[in-house]
Specification:
Blueprint lengths: L6 E6 L4 E6 L2 H7 L3 H11 L13 E4 L13 E7 L6 E7 L1 H8 L4 E5 L6 E6 L2 E6 L8 H12 L4 E4 L2 H4 L7 E3 L3 E3 L4 H7 L2 E7 L9 H16 L4 H7 L4 H7 L21 H7 E5 L9 E5 L5 E4 L1 H7 L8 H14 L3 H16 L12 H13 L2 H6 L3 H8 L9 E2 L2 E2 L9 H9 L12 H7 L6 H22 L3 H6 L5 H10 L5 H23 L13 H4 L14 H15 L9 H6 L3 H8 L7
Parallel strand pairs: 1-6, 7-12
Antiparallel strand pairs: 1-2, 3-4, 3-6, 4-5, 7-8, 9-12, 10-11, 13-14, 14-15, 16-17
Bound molecules: tungstopterin and iron/sulfur cluster.
Amino acid sequence: MHGWNGKILRVNLTRQKAAVQEYPAEMAMNFMGGRGFAAKVIWDEVKPGTDPLSPDNKLIFAAGPLTGFPIPSSGKLVVAAKSPLTGGYGDGSLGSQAAVQMRKAGYDAIIVEGRAESPTALLIQGESTQLLDAKELWGMGSFEAEQRLRDVYGQSAGILTIGPAGEKLVKFANIISQGGRAGGRPGIGAVMGSKNLKAVVIIGLGELKAADPNGLRNLGVEAYREILTKPNYGFWKRQGTMSTLEWSQENSVLPTFNYREGIFDYAELIGGFAMEKIKVSQRGCPNCNMTCGNVVEDANGEESELDYENVAMLGANIGIGDLKKVSAINRMADDLGLDTISLGNVIGFAMEASEKNIIEEKISWGDYESVKALTEDITYKRGLGSVLSEGVKFASLKFGGETKTWAMHVKGLEISGYDCHAAPAMALSYGTCPLGAHHKDAWVISWEVKAGREGYGEEKVDKVIELQRLRGGLFEFATVCRLPWVEVGFELEWYPKFLKAATGIDFSWSELHQIADRVYTLIRAFWVREYGKSWSKEMDIPPERWFKDSLTKGPFKGAKLDKEKYEIMLQMYYRKRGWDERGIPTKATLNKLGLKDVISELQKKVELKS
Ligand code: PTT
Ligand code: SF4
């Protein structure tokens, strides 16, 4: 095999053993890599009903056949596990030197199983694998832990750590790298913590082998050059994802006051231009010439790396209109290892509950000091923080009553930074994302704003599926950053060419789409196997707030979603995916996608339609 290393490293922390395993070419052809590999391993190896925080869950780090090659933005790594937040499949994409180093160490994936008896770090240096005592790092913030390791292993080592939130098993703890890259929203950091694994350090000593090394090198040179010529490149380098803030405000999709509104009175103070005034430097993932990490000086004079989602959720959604303060909370989240989207979501929920006297604690919109204290309490599971650390779905079940209406999640994963009162396609994207309400699989909102907000028609369903096949498919399997394509218009046609030069295989678009459909259906099967008879189409329906409470201001004042029309759109989506009216794959679809073995397993849990 070229492009792929053909090897997986399996580390058992209970037995303190590591083994290198070869995997068949069929696995590469059917699932490609990254999310595809992770989904296959989780389906095959995580038994139904496994407690996600038990030693039986598997923690997976997976790259794809393009990861690490000298082509644009190829330093990404999928981190995955059964999610403790949702009980379903969970993953995230992290930009890190660890992605490149893992591939250079000769592995396409690492599977971590079991649980170490005491805090441990996994060290991979070329072919050698060691488990190190990490007691001294336990309790440390992710920044300090990474720095300590970097002092020993050097600047080029790939390092992944968890913060105290992962150690304390906060259900939305994620994994941090390079002082501000974060991945694994659905609690993948908590899974790492449950295994007593504080850090992973990788130093690759080999070189990646492409089928056509010269061809790939030349393509890479041409591609980097091409990105520099894109008209939006200069502005992107200035603002990165932060320009989305003003765009969201203009289009009334900026989540504000726990998704009550789509505009925020102080948006200008926390947008891309405000960011430029406090920007001190710029960082990025490996192999990338778009370096979109905007580093700013926060309210404490410290460095904080900003992206749109961080600011939408820790700014507008909780009523903070001061970017330096937002940045300080963002820095806390990175250091503690908390997902900023879920953090802003649970805090917004608590603020609304406080306003409505549903809880005794007083925490008002925009109250910076209380937010900082609550962020600490969530991490260390104290008082109200302890309830919120379980996620917004759990908190609403605990507080009961009307809170269910405005607990903003799908399948237990808190909603990302786009309000959907007037965006049915984006609502469908959240509803059907294989992780719960993440925007990563189909950021259809930018298209929907241009195509028209009102409709619930077939073209919206088609667009969601088309984007899921690319963003949730190709980019997550080849495991490279999608932003060159999404943000500066780097053409999709480059990717089959990269794949051909790396692997020697001429993948057609229909083959790439089929891999995406296979993985989507396998992940859906995993969810259904976990939820069994309690699975229903309700799992794919966003929260009641968007159907019940209209926007009260802005250009879309009065707008709300239509439930009946949403459900018609959802059924259309199911039909196109070959799933039945409950959203469960049919036998014919499973057969067509080469997932025959899944049928017998799934039939133990639910009745399958032909
Ligand atoms: C992603 C989610 C996002 S998506 C953001 S900002 W975004 C938040 N960032 C967080 C953060 O920062 N700190 C923190 N403690 N929590 C955070 N949670 C949120 O996590 C990220 C970029 C971005 S910035 C995006 S859109 C793109 N996402 C990609 C993707 O998903 N796949 C892919 N192939 N390429 C992508 N490129 C872009 O990467 P999750 P990163 Mg992230 C500080 O992981 O779990 O998917 O959640 O990886 O290296 O930080 O790069 O406006
Ligand atoms: Fe990382 Fe941004 Fe480059 Fe993507 S565009 S690889 S997120 S620096």
